[in-house]
Amino acid sequence: MLATKWKTYSRKPVIKISAFVLLVVCFLIGVSSALDIYLKVKNYESITVKNYLESNTLSNELRYAANRLEYVLRVYKSGDYILSGGTVSNLDIEDSWQLKNLYSNFIAENGLEDNYDSRERFWAEKSREVEDVKKIIMKTDLNNYEQIMNELNKPGGLVYHATDGKNSVTNTNNPDKHYYKIQNVYILIDRQGVELNPENGYSSYSSSLLDAVEDIEGGRTKTAIYAAITDEGLLSRVERWNSDRSILIKGSTIIVFCGMLMIMCFVYLTVVTGKTMENDEVHMAAVDKLYPDVSLLLITGIVALGMIRFYEVLDIRFTSEILMIFAMLSLAALLASAFLSLFYSIVRHIKNGTLIRHSMIYSILSSTLRAIIKVLSSGPLMHKSMAAVIALAAASFYSYKMPVIIIPIALLAAYYVYSKVRKFQTIQEGLKVAKTGDYDFKINIDGEGEFSRLADDINSITSGLKTAVQSEVKSEKLKTELITNVSHDIKTPLTSIISYVDLLKREGLSSPNASKYLDVLDRKSNRLKILTEDLFEAAKATSGSIEPDFERVNVNALISQILGELDEKIHESKLTFKVTSSGGRVFARADGRLLSRVMENLLSNIFKYALQESRVYIDISQTEKDVSVSFKNISAYELNIPVDELMERFKRGDESRSSEGNGLGLAIAKSLMEIQEGILELSIDGDLFKAEIRLARFI
Description:
The protein is α+β, with helices and mostly antiparallel strands and 699 residues long. It contains 22 helices and 12 strands. It folds into 5 domains: 47-229, no CATH class; 273-372, no CATH class; 379-435; 439-545, Orthogonal Bundle (Helix Hairpins), CATH 1.10.287.130; 547-696, Heat Shock Protein 90. A hairpin with a 3-residue loop joins strand 9 and strand 10 (626-634). Helix 14 runs antiparallel to helix 15 and helix 16 packs antiparallel against helix 17 (514-543). The protein is elongated and about 155 Å long.
């Protein structure tokens, strides 16, 4: 019972996510503690040695001071000695790489050999260049001398006096040995030998100092080196030692504790990853779509990136420690999360048994093998037939001593030939049916191969022929309707014009009906003029000869302007217009002139076919990319025409063609919208007619 509860509880997503976050957080805390130790601790020995006076660090500081003092006495003497050229007075070519390069170039330019005469000539001819090199060396020596002296004086509290009998290096000007010996910590080197207090750890004297000590004890030199740490300096070092020890103990404790928590979370997540409360099946995650070997490669890259970038990020401390800590923790969080995600993806593949089958190498090899098999199984018929004949001949040749084997080979070859011939006959029969005009008949060939592909190609051809025939029939029907409609729309006003002109001829202009006849002639001629202009505009719109001038168009303002211009017509039509807009002002990327014509055509269509005293709704809306304007009205006529036909030329809502209009308005509007890279869509729901235009939003 408890085991079941624990199993269910441990597999909860929130527990697994919490463990993952805890693992990453513990890692970051550990990294933060390690950085704190690295930045603040100088004496790492303090974690094992509590008393500073018993540490190797203290004795090594004295030994190091003696080494540096001996080096300064032997090489630099003093700052004045360097400035006076003492360090370069006996300079040889091999003592400086600058002189080596200068000398090598000199003998190469003059074709000389390296000998005494060449060197004498070099010193004579290159004296100016040699002096320049000596100045550079003197400057370098002076910088090194000052750096050593700064190191000896930091941290404070170290007092010293060193002399070779001629030159002295001191910060006390006190050569009295007793002055240094009365200190608690000191090192004394003279003819009496080396005395170090306290003497902890192993000797770390330089070889040159050890040689100098032999000469000092043998009386061959007058060198004496005295150094000590004052009580104030010792106290500051003890305080630093104790501070370092406290930071080390605290940081190490945190690191160990976080390490234990990380191991627990790591093991727990390894056990439960891929498992759910419902069942014991392994459930894969989105990251598992990656190939396991690619994940392993990425893990290797993450580790390499962490190692490479570690010191680069660490160097940021010279600019800002806070910035360095932030960058280090951010990088650690990112790399740790990526590492764990990829690692547990590999674990889930191991549990699911897909570590090999889902790998990229396996996929490439299996795909290659399948491709080879497919080529062999569905290659050209001639190649396969020739291969079959050669294989049959080879099998017959090698099995002549065993005639029994030839029988199954012959049966297999017969079956192969029969299956191919049978498929060919099926295709022949299908072609005969297609020749009769039955394009709905389909040739069915099972399996894969050239015959199956041939059957599919023939089926595609017959389907295409059927579509082409239907399209041609529809096209012929539309041509007939177009001619009929154009003839009707031209003939109607033309007949009226001829009739009323004839009446005027008979009755004369003085007839009391003359003004009525002229009004009719004016209306009919204007209608004929409008029809002619619309025909030309429709031809221009569909021919692509209109170039749009795209600009920022305020759709709200444009609709208000058009409705204002058509105010008289609106009152005459007794229609009520309702305009709504979402999101304030709406701007479209369009040609203002063409868009205005599209809207005028749609409104003209509404005036002609909308039910009187009904409402017309204009809705303006926009998305992140598009602008949409919809026009909705109730039709006065029964809409029994397919929507796609309404936008064809000379198609009208009333099939009787008794109303005004010529059926070109929607066709022109559609073409003008296409020119502006927009869309005009129509929809019919009973008597509700809706036209919607969509354009790109101006951004």
